[in-house]
From TrEMBL:
This is Dol-P-Man:Man(5)GlcNAc(2)-PP-Dol alpha-1,3-mannosyltransferase. It is found in: Endoplasmic reticulum membrane. The keyword Acetylation does not apply. The chain crosses the membrane at residues 20-40, 73-90, 97-118, 138-159, 171-198, 204-223, 262-284, 304-327, 334-360, 372-393. Belongs to the glycosyltransferase ALG3 family. It is a multi-pass membrane protein. Dol-P-Man:Man(5)GlcNAc(2)-PP-Dol alpha-1,3-mannosyltransferase that operates in the biosynthetic pathway of dolichol-linked oligosaccharides, the glycan precursors employed in protein asparagine (N)-glycosylation. The assembly of dolichol-linked oligosaccharides begins on the cytosolic side of the endoplasmic reticulum membrane and finishes in its lumen. The sequential addition of sugars to dolichol pyrophosphate produces dolichol-linked oligosaccharides containing fourteen sugars, including two GlcNAcs, nine mannoses and three glucoses. It catalyses: an alpha-D-Man-(1->2)-alpha-D-Man-(1->2)-alpha-D-Man-(1->3)-[alpha-D-Man-(1->6)]-beta-D-Man-(1->4)-beta-D-GlcNAc-(1->4)-alpha-D-GlcNAc-diphospho-di-trans,poly-cis-dolichol + a di-trans,poly-cis-dolichyl beta-D-mannosyl phosphate = an alpha-D-Man-(1->2)-alpha-D-Man-(1->2)-alpha-D-Man-(1->3)-[alpha-D-Man-(1->3)-alpha-D-Man-(1->6)]-beta-D-Man-(1->4)-beta-D-GlcNAc-(1->4)-alpha-D-GlcNAc-diphospho-di-trans,poly-cis-dolichol + a di-trans,poly-cis-dolichyl phosphate + H(+). GO terms for molecular function: dol-P-Man:Man(5)GlcNAc(2)-PP-Dol alpha-1,3-mannosyltransferase activity. The lineage of its organism: Eukaryota, Fungi, Dikarya, Ascomycota, Pezizomycotina. Pathway: Protein modification; protein glycosylation. Its EC number is 2.4.1.258.
């Protein structure tokens, strides 16, 4: 084996990931230290988070009355509890440097989980450098302290636990993520399919009830006296977004962006793409037709099916990418959810490594353009569309359909 062949083997053989990821993690520890030490912190939402949780800690339980300098509290209860803990740990929110250290640890912990998930799915080592090179991602975690960082941790922890067949733990972690920020709901369709396939309909139903009960339990302090305020603020689906801050739909113009018809069109497209993935890709491991799959679920007879770690990660991340592609508006902090998903989805799409790096670079550039422009927003939407379409065409292993009915009987008789 010559040098070139060795280099190719090192870059493409998953067995070498176990040697490469610790080196990248060590480099990240150094880089995070330098960023926290040398790069100025950027105030956006931290002070507002602290103002809001201070009201909660003072006894306020009406979401309509919990506000900060940049607006009202619009996140679920787990967000409040986590940032209340940070409020106490960080000297009533004043010790921002210590908060940055905590978020650096959170970043590194999430990175370890992501790399572990990639290894479980058999991803090649050449993808790993893309997990540590994002300027925007470091900014979201270390310099802006957004709650999206916390939600992303729970999202990837849920993916890893599902890959390890820890269905109940995975669902609980996902529910925790939803309790931080509603964006994590985007993978709900994937979670449902994966747990039904992997654990069977009975356990899946139990996990679904558990996830719902957890949300109720988290919200009890707010639901007791002001239920409508909590539900309308923490899970507001009718929020009107500002064109000023959008990074994905800048190119359609403000009039289109604000129109109800555009919002409805995005909803229809979202549902249609999810439906296509569900019918033609996600339920394939069940080796049944759509009608039979639904009938099995309705009758409580859908038994566990063998699904791979790669299938689990691909299903979760395609559900996420579809949701982000069809989102009413994306802000810069939403890149926390997408950044680590993109290399995996581009790889599953079957693209050449060089093209993967080029598309990743284009997406990274677009998310770092501030304020967003027509070109940057087109690039963001195009990159998401490529990931979704590529995953649909090439991202899932083809499962041969089992012959049913009379044909099945004839086939059996010929063996």
């Amino acid at each position: 084996m010559n040098i070139y062949e060795r280099a190719v083997d090192l870059a493409t053989n998953p067995k070498y990931s176990k040697w490469i990821w610790p080196l990248l993690l060590l480099a990240e520890v150094f880089l995070c230290t330098v960023i926290v030490w040398k790069v100025p912190y950027t105030e956006i939402d931290w002070s507002t988070y602290m103002q809001q949780v201070s009201l909660f800690l003072s006894g306020e339980r009406d979401y309509a009355l919990i506000k900060g300098s940049t607006g009202p509290l619009v996140y679920p209860a787990v967000h409040v509890y986590i940032y209340s803990a940070l409020y106490h740990i960080c000297d009533d929110g004043r010790d921002i440097a210590f908060a940055q250290v905590i978020f650096a640890i959170l970043y590194l912990a999430t990175l370890v989980i992501v790399m572990w998930s990639y290894r479980s799915a058999g991803a090649p080592p050449y993808l790993l450098p893309l997990l540590v090179l994002s300027k925007r991602l470091h900014s979201i975690f270390l310099l802006r302290l957004f709650n999206d960082a916390v939600a992303t941790f729970f999202l990837w922890a849920a993916i890893l636990m599902l890959q390890r067949r820890q269905w109940a733990v995975g669902v609980v972690l996902w529910s925790m993520g939803v309790g931080v920020k509603m964006t994590v709901l985007l993978v709900a369709p994937a979670i449902a399919v994966i747990v039904v396939l992997g654990a069977g309909i009975i356990k899946a139903a139990g996990s679904g009830v558990t996830a719902l009960l957890l949300q109720v339990l988290f919200a009890v302090p707010f639901l007791q006296d002001h239920p409508s305020s909590y539900i309308s603020r923490a899970f507001e689906f009718t929020r009107q977004f500002l064109f000023t801050w959008t990074v994905n739909w800048r190119f359609v113009g403000e009039d289109v962006f604000l129109s109800k018809s555009f919002a409805l069109a995005l909803l229809v497209v979202h549902a249609s793409i999810l439906g296509a993935f569900f019918v033609f890709r996600w339920i394939a491991p069940s080796n049944t037709s759509l009608t039979q799959f639904i009938n099995n679920i309705a009758r409580g007879k859908q038994s566990p099916t063998q699904i791979t770690s790669s299938f689990i990660a691909t299903t979760m991340l395609t559900s996420l990418a579809i949701g982000l592609l069809c989102a009413r508006s994306l802000h810069y902090q939403f890149f926390a959810y997408l950044s680590w998903a993109t290399p995996f989805l581009l790889w599953k799409s079957g693209f050449h490594p060089l093209l993967i790096y080029l598309l990743w670079t284009a997406q990274e550039w677009a998310w770092n353009v501030y304020p967003s422009t027509t070109i940057s927003s087109i690039t963001i939407v195009a990159c998401l569309a490529i990931q979704v379409l590529g995953s649909f065409l090439n991202g899932f292993e083809r499962v041969p359909k089992r012959t049913q009915g009379l044909k099945g009987g004839l086939a059996m008789s010929r063996r």
